[in-house]
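Think of the structure tokens as a kind of shorthand, similar to the way a musician reads notation: each symbol stands for something richer, in this case the local conformation of the backbone. In the example below we present two proteins back to back. Begin with the first one, reading the sequence and then the tokens, and try to describe in your own words what changes along the chain.
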Amino acid sequence: MVNEWLTAVIGLLGAGVGAGAAVWGAARSARAGREALALQRRHDDARWMREQRQAAYHAMIRADMMQTEAAYTVLGHREDDDWPPEVRARQHEAHYEAVAAESLIELCGPPDVLEAARELRKAGDLMVMEWGSGGPMDRTVDAEQRRARALAAFREAARRTLGYA
């Protein structure tokens, strides 16, 4: 009778230890699953942010190209009043594209990239105005050099943010 009683107690203890181990294992597995999900979410968020930044930075580069093209378009027209409607439209479109790209960067980019984008937009606007003003050649050259420096600074800030530098 003692053997049966001892066997039953040992069996109950074994079942209790087994149940405890199962509960501990299930909790550990659930915690590991939550940690993996949180890690995946952080990874997905970082990838999404990087993609948004790439798109915004690309839009700024395209806007700079439009501003440069607009500057070349106004080069033959010496006064703002003499710009034909299509030249004026191109200049306005380039300006608005640059402002829109800057706004995208304001939403998703860090402050240093936003500052570089603002400087690039301002330098592009100035280049268009200087090239179309009929003013001294040194101001025209200065405007182009300012835009080139601003573009280099923007690209460097964008590369650093995206992890390319």
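Once you have a description of the first chain, move to the second and do the same.
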Amino acid sequence: MLRGLTQAQLAEMVGTRQPSIARLENGSSSPSLSFLNKIAEALGAKIEFKLIPDTK
């Protein structure tokens, strides 16, 4: 559950099915940026990327 939402509720908000949300939560899916944006919008959030130099 995220922010008090069930997987099914979040799925409905972003126009997908609950198993898609479950796969995201358990790490067995690699979502597209477009799909992540839909989730962020539904949650009232934004996506930010941070590039960190490799120190090896």
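Compare your description with these statements about the second chain. The chain has a mean pLDDT of 92.
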